[in-house]
Fold:
Amino acid sequence: MVEGPRVRAMVRVIAHRGASAAATENTVEAFRLAGTLGADWIELDVRRTADGALVVHHDEALPDGRDLVALDRAEVPSHVPDLATALDACAPLSVNVEIKNWPADVDFDPAAAIVEPVVAELVARTMSDRVLVSCFHLPTLDRVRSVDPSIPTAVLHGPVEGTWDGFADSMAAAGHRALHPWDLIVDEALVEAAHRHGLEVNVWTVNDPDRMRTLVDMGVDGLCTDVPDVARAVLDDT
Structure:
C-alpha cells in the first residue's frame, strides 16, 4: 500500500555499524552508544564462519588478513560479536541487518545458506516489526522473502539500469519494503519514484549536515550515518 506524504518528523536516524565515528564499528560498544547519541535504528553487517556461526563484521577478512569463512567462531577475536550478542546490544532500537553475500567476496554462497539462521534468529526474537534485512545481492534478499515473507527487506544499491520508476516498480513487485541507495546517486526523482511505489528510502552513508538537510527536504525516510548525534541535531533543527 502506498503511504501518504512523508513528514520530516518521521525521518529516522540509522547508526551505520553503530556509532562508528565514536567507537569501533560493529561492536557492542558502538551499538550501545548509538542510542545515547540519538539513533532510532542501528545498521550492522552479518557474515558466517567456517562452523556456521553468524558474526557481525563488515569485511570478509579480519585486519590480519584471515578470512572469516575459513575460521571457526572460537578463532574470531572476542570484540567481534555474534549476531545474537549484537542484537542484544542494539535493544530496544530497531535494527537494519545487512547480510553480506556478494559474488566477488571469498565467502560468497550462491545458495545463500546464511539466510535461514539469520531469519531464525530474528523470528525467535519476534523482531519483524522492528527490523529490516538488507543486501546488495538480490537473490539473497529474495531468499529472505521466500523463507519468511513477514521479515521486511531493503534493496542496497548504487546506480541502476533504466529509470528510477522502473527500478522501484520491480523492487516493489518483488515484495521489498525499502530502497537503500548510495548517497551520491540520490535525487528527487529517485525518492519520488520509490514513494510512488510504496517504498521507503534510507540513504547511506551521510555524514555532512548540509547534505542531510538536502535529503530531508527531498523527503527521504532515513539517514544512515556514522555520526548519529549530528543527524539528530539536524533533524531536531528542521
In short: The domain at 24-100+117-132 is CATH 3.20.20.190 (TIM Barrel). The two ends are 28 Å apart (CA to CA).
